[in-house]
Design goal:
228 residues, alpha/beta, Rossmann fold, 6 helices, 28% helix
Length: 228
Amino acid sequence: MEKIKIWLSWSTGKDCAYALHQLMLNKKYEIKGLLTTLTTSRAVAMHGTPEHLLKSQASELGLPLYCTEAGINKYQQSFEQQMRTLLKTALDQNVSHIAFGDLFLEDIRSYREEKMKGTGIELLFPLWQKPTSELAKSIINSGFKAIITSINLKALPISFLGRSYNEEFLSDLPPSIDPCGENGEFHTFVFDGPVFQSPIVVDLGKITIEGDHGFVQLNSNKFTCEDH
């Protein structure tokens, strides 16, 4: 039986990494690439992951990376034009599905489904409505290692920035905070796990505040943008 070919929406965080792991374990699917949107500052929105670390992840995963840019890119193409071009590339590769690591936010899922109507691409949500307390422990117990790279300062104090996503982190979260951060309380960068060929070595840099959000800079000398 021919496998279903998939692209995975890739945010650089723990949820999409765990979704990738689950899809790889399912013999029905073949992962053909990662799909990411970069900001005009060449970083992954909300996570703050710089492009060179995004590319490091794709290299360690052994998967092609397909990027769109928010707004207008250097070729003067709008985001919508870029997405149409990439979806044509997906279809040319016989990719029939795009998977997302969304957990329970109905409005986000509905938005994605509406945008994909009529494209010929179907959507998958492999982690949908899994209890997040159980999911958080499964991510950690599966061997994924991640760093908290951004937080909503209305939800968490700045001291949570740069921490490891582990059992201690979960136990320190206030009861009102989702253990997977699905309501935007925090975001992560995954640097190791069962889907990686080898760990990505990163150092913590400076902390910046942008509105209600705090970000910690991640530094790595392993790859530069020009390497890929």
